[in-house]
Queue: 4 jobs
Job 1
Amino acid sequence: MVSASEALDIVLSHARVLGTEKVPLLDALGRVLAGDLVSREDLPSHDNSSMDGFAVRSSDVGSATEVEPAFLKIVGESSAGHVLDRPIGSGQAARMMTGGLIPKGADTVVPVEHTREEDDGRVGVLKPAGPGQHIRKRGEDIKEGEVVIRGGKRITPGAIGLLAAMGYSRVRVYEKPIVNILATGDELVRLKEKLRKGQIRNSSTYALAAQVNEAGGVPRMLGILPDKPGKLRKGTKNALNADVLVITGGVSVGKRDHVKEALDEAGVEIRFWRVNIKPGMPLLFGTFKDTLVFGLPGNPASTGVTFQQFVRPAIHRMNGLLDVHPMRLSAVLDQDFVKGDTKRHFVRGVVRQIDGTLHVVSTGTQSSGAISSLARANCLVIIPEEVTSLKNGSMVDVELIQSFF
Ligand code: AMP
Ligand code: MG
């Protein structure tokens, strides 16, 4: 039996970063940028006004007051998209709109609130304005040659805006891993079938496909295999044509658990079987050439938790993400917790902020068969191996289940 961190290290040591592809800008949302993105130009490309007002020479308005305004002749207008192509001399002003380019000769912008327009084409400036005031300088946002987004980062809506501002209509991102999903179990039926006695719906495949999507992979749902060694061997062999194969059920020590044996016979090299965790102890991991193979325990909570802890980081690594470890937050545990073993526990919990501090409670029953406990959870509480019990008010680490950019 390996520990949780040994298991994750083994998985990640076999997960290779995939190739890259260019995609249209909007399709890049949530994908991982391949290679540092270097700006090809200054942003903004020219000095421009951040206010509506008047572009003037600061030396002309140094002693302006309400009582004795500095009167300047309005010689033109500069607004976003309309360039004023003449210089501003001493005693002159250009009417400015936000985003308009600063005309030559002017070195400051007086906001319209600090001016009073006369009827004779002049403007009275009522306050002094120092050089550079209300001017967005060329390159102050981004300089040409600057790395604007590091490779290995997920592309956010903000990054899409930045890429658009720099004229990129296509972006190079890492490919998504194809993840084959197979369920095993004589009791499983498809969603539309009528349940007979002893049968249950194959729900885990759907939860897994959703988790694969969210993690950044492409799920392929391959259906259900029975607990028959021959059929399992053939079925798993046929499912190895992907970057990842996830099989649920049949990896424990029951009389009908034949998945390990079937994978072995299909040529999969078993890297570990059984991890010191709860739920999810029977987890199996192996490789077939470059394909990662996960045998997840069939209990729905075990399936969900082991995916979250071991498959998701592998998908993230294949996706090219630099940091594959989920963000951990510190929270106050609002209940006692007794743990009668030395496993690492992942407790399905609900975390929320109360008076500026994160507090967490479990979702109730932690039976690994409880589908509801995972559906209600927004986090996993991590209880380390060496901890045997926790008092109400203890600090614990939680990992959010929803993915973040
Ligand atoms: P196993 O790991 O095959 O022993 O399965 C453990 C438990 O999980 C059993 O109660 C199964 O009926 C249930 N189970 C297995 N696979 C699925 C699935 N795809 N969807 C829902 N429940 C499942
Ligand atoms: Mg089974």
Job 2
Amino acid sequence: VNVIETIDGFRKTLDAERLDGKTVGLVPTMGFLHEGHVALMRRAATECDVAAATIFVNPLQFAAGEDLSTYPRDIDGDTRAASDAGIDHLFVPDLSEMYPGDVHTTVSVAGESDGLEGASRPTHFAGVATVVAKLFNIAGPCRAYFGEKDWQQLQVVRRMVADLSFPIEVVGCPIVRADDGLALSSRNAYLSSAERAAAPVLHRALVDGLAAVERGVADREAADVMARTISAEPLAQLDYAEVVGDRLLVAARFGSTRLIDNLGVTR
Ligand code: AMP
């Protein structure tokens, strides 16, 4: 894998690939890669002539008091994992490369950013949309792979691309889970063993919610079913359990670690 640290270097590399007639796949991440990230990378490598990934822990999407300073990092392990997953070009800018000074220009996506994560983390999606817009402008025309794990983020990115005519095809990819149902997340590394044992309650709640919807109960009641499953776990502190359109979405804290998950329903 070709590791690139500068904006100019990454841009020129992908421009040269396209000039060669190659299609480009892009996988933006914050690193500490797990099998969920690897699935996106393998898919980009399979579906595109050239696969690129980015690792950047974006401070704009963390609020004061969130886990920016403790966010897990392992650049050597990530480089190996990206290489094994078929990534050709890995962009790993440092903070001063991405944000050499104050940022006065931000992208906010109204509507899609409201509620759910947006209610709990009011500045989060503007931070995400801004860095993704910047990465898209650096990478240029490509297919960009995002996980359904961050369902609301995927809707925010799709809307931004449509509204601002980015030359990007957004590809949503299914959630990769551990055997016990827990959605893989870099933040799972924060969990104590007791919290890790409790965390699959999120997925169980979604399965309970799905069964409720399939029984034909009202969305409100299916949301209550999910909330009750999570609240029955002593180590979980419910943040939200909601049904939005054809999606069941939950968030809870396990100690100081906040986890999210979601599941689609077919009615
Ligand atoms: P992150 O490094 O957490 O910003 O995630 C980078 C990308 O990987 C995002 O598009 C996430 O939605 C995706 N992702 C993270 N965890 C998973 C997972 N368990 N399954 C599928 N995609 C994931």
Job 3
Amino acid sequence: MFNLDEAQALVVQHTLALKPQRVPILEALGLLLEEDVLSDIASPPHDKALVDGYAVVAEDLTNGCGELHVHEEVMAGDVPQHRVTTGTATRIMTGAPVPEGASAVVMMERCDRLGPQRIRIADPALKPGQHIMPAGTSLRRGDLVLQRGVEIRAIEVGLLAEVGRADALVIPRPHVAVLATGNELMPVHETPTAGKLRNSNGPMLLAAARRAGAQTLDLGIARDHKEQLADRISQGLNLDVLILSGGVSAGALDLVPKVLNELGVRQVFHHVRLKPGKPVWFGVHSHAHGSTLVFGLPGNPVSSLVTFQLLVQPALRRLAGRNSATGSLVARLVTAHAHHGDRPTFYPARLHEQDGLRSVQLVAWHGSADLASLAAANCLVHFPAGSQLHAAGDKVEVVEF
Ligand code: AMP
Ligand code: MG
């Protein structure tokens, strides 16, 4: 049986970043850019008025004061036709190109209209360059706008649009299929009959995969039946990742490892020194267009969630081109806790942060079938193997959900 860090290393070893793909920029949101992006334009493309007002020759006015003849009006989107010369001004709107000859823009509020084409300006603070954004201030043609490796946020989507990119080369979202297995499982919309329970893992794992940036496919429920399992599992073996829940323990109907083996999925490990989640299975299926990572997670909901967090999530990060480490942090226990057990244990808890101090409170729960108590949790506390008495205030390692 492998230790958790060995199992995690094996998962990472078998996982490569997905091949870059060109996608529409809106679909690139949250993904990593796989190319350098240069600007095809200067921004602004022209000297641009930053206020509504009059474009003038600043040097033409005495202490910013004087009367001028208005010979043109330029709106945003227009192109000025006339040069501003001594004694003249162009009425100009925010964003419009500043006409040739003009060296400043005077705000509307500093001007009085004397007639249809005559204004008096009184702007004692007037300086050349005032209220003009010179062409290329933000970007010059050929500038590196975005560097390979950045994550596309709303800002990057806007920038890509500004430099004329309708699509971008990114590492795509991993495609993940989820299949719940078990004779006892009933679909969500039905009320469980004797001996049965609803399939909560399916939706939970689909949600966790989406939250981790994956595109998901719901393969529903398969019964503990070799043929049915083989049929359903095959439907997920052409995606990047197949996540199974249930059927990997030592029960009479835990057929998943055997069926996977018969389908040619190569086992990398089965069982990890871990609580909850020990029966977890991992293997790789190689096929014509690449390979599928296959995770068999134990059926108990908390075991499923913990093994997703510790083993599946790093794989999804790596497929998406990121560092596989999901990271942990240190917090102080709010109440004392006696830990016993021969396996490292991940205990659901609630992490609090106030004024930079982190504290963590274990939630009261009833073992790995108790999903309801996890609603109060936002992290897992890691207790190493062995018996230890942790006092209130002791530092512990925490993995955030
Ligand atoms: P297994 O890992 O198949 O032995 O399942 C262990 C236990 O987990 C089962 O007896 C169920 O109580 C529970 N379980 C299995 N699959 C699911 C599921 N999809 N949703 C909720 N609970 C499940
Ligand atoms: Mg089962």
Job 4
Amino acid sequence: VAAPDRLSSYRSKRDFERTSEPKGKVAKAPKGAPRFVIQQHSATALHWDLRLEQDGVLRSWALTRGLPWTPDENHLAVHTEDHPMQYLDFEGDIPEGEYGGGNMFVWDVGWFEPHEMLDDKVVVTLHGQRAQGRHSLFAFKGKNWLIHRMDPPADPARQPLPAPFPPMKAVPGRLPTGDGWAFEVEHVGVRVLAQVSGGGVDLFTADGEDVSTRFPEVRRMGRAVGSTEVALDGVLAADGGEQAVRRRLEPASSSTVRRRSQREPVKLLVFDCLWWDGHPLLDVPWEERRERLEALALDDVAWATPTAHLGDGKPLRDAAKAQGIALIAKRRSSPYRPGEASKDWRRLGG
Ligand code: MN
């Protein structure tokens, strides 16, 4: 039974003079199917809020890694207070310092079949644009619940992210001619593979060492990538050059890491996208990988995608040469070959 005070906890946490979130009221039971929303919420930690309509309010859980795509892996679902029905289409910036401060947008909205709607267990089939299939949620410890996908994966060909692999390398070469090439500035620093899943970022060096915890400023890139699962090739660069990045690689306490990340920040320069939502892109031509990479629109103080120049490389090569900078020429039709030095990537000058 819908009672007006089901939203009192929701209201008590918010100052409606300061936030544009709806104040809300308990709605009457709707005709037709109940609705759900999943909001991507960039609060203290990135998460996805799943809200299911029941008794005139939205029962809510914060999914720290989003929806599981396979029955093999359950995700944490932190139970949160009921929200008003008006939250179904809420998007915007909740002010810093307020409860849930940060940007929120509708990741998906749709309707669901309610199979079981108990206090400690919920089974629903979601019918959204992105979220599909039968899921169960069950309480296991206090407000911590788990969400389990009961249906087989919506994309049966989907594969988990692979183990870290070494980068493709360039070989010294001459300026190629014709329009089948792209030219990038060679950035000096430490080459890393960045794997992003459920908004979390893992960083691996070329020999497979996990250095994720050393670069908290780069790990925030998960917020920019969101729910897309990707593997990215890039270089960690710093104002102090390669040596400055190498100092950051040394093991240190978390307080030292935090201090170094502020005093000697690095920037991840991403130039290739090797995996996309369960599908390898290694055999895909460079220019299609580049399109995927640009779709991520990586542009921040701690991460970015440098320009790739198409067409005649000679003016760029001459300018780079004058400044003692090397270029990497990449054949636009070429696949990515982990660990290989390939003539499809030519290092020019420097
Ligand atoms: Mn939230």
